[in-house]
Write a structure and sequence with these properties.
- It is a single chain.
- The chain is α+β, with helices and mostly antiparallel strands and about 130 residues long.
- About 15% of the residues are buried.
- The chain has a 5-stranded mixed beta barrel with strand order 1-2-3-5-4. It has a two-stranded antiparallel ribbon with strand order 6-7.
- The chain has a domain of about 70 residues: OB fold (Dihydrolipoamide Acetyltransferase, E2P) (Beta Barrel).
- It contains 3 helices and 7 strands; from the N terminus they run H-E-E-E-E-E-H-H-E-E.
- It is globular.
- The termini are far apart.
Length: about 130
């Protein structure tokens, strides 16, 4: 009996379509930009040299962790956070639906002056 219940539960878990997954929630300090891995940990952020922080996390559009070495040369639209040392700490490769959410700040100054609704994942300009 227990085996049947576990088998049914496992099958139901596998059968959940990707579209049914929850939308990702980004922090208020996440900025939008163009990201390209040059030679890990060196990257281009908005066309300027930048560096991945030790322990940086890059999440693909599918939400899974990505290795920076496998992304060399790909130019991607991302949300990102910067650590206290000025290095990239978290990077999220955007899905088309996430990229369509506009406006989204591209500089810390914009983020400081705009209002962020975390639940709706929506920024409002003053």
């Amino acid at each position: 009996m227990l085996r049947c219940v576990l088998t049914a539960l496992a099958a139901a878990t596998v059968a959940v379509p990707a579209a049914a997954q929850l939308a990702r929630q980004f922090p208020a300090n996440a900025l939008r930009g163009s990201f390209q891995v040059v030679q890990p940990p060196d990257v281009q952020l908005n066309g300027k040299p930048a560096r991945l922080a030790p322990g940086a996390r890059i999440r693909g559009a599918n939400g899974m962790l990505q290795m920076s070495g496998a992304m060399v040369g790909h130019k991607l639209l991302v949300h990102y956070t910067i650590d206290d040392s000025g290095n990239l700490h978290d990077v999220w490769v955007l899905t088309p639906a996430e990229a369509a959410r506009k406006p989204w700040p591209t500089t810390p100054a914009e983020a400081q002056h705009w209002s962020f609704d975390w639940g709706a994942q929506h920024w409002t300009k003053p």
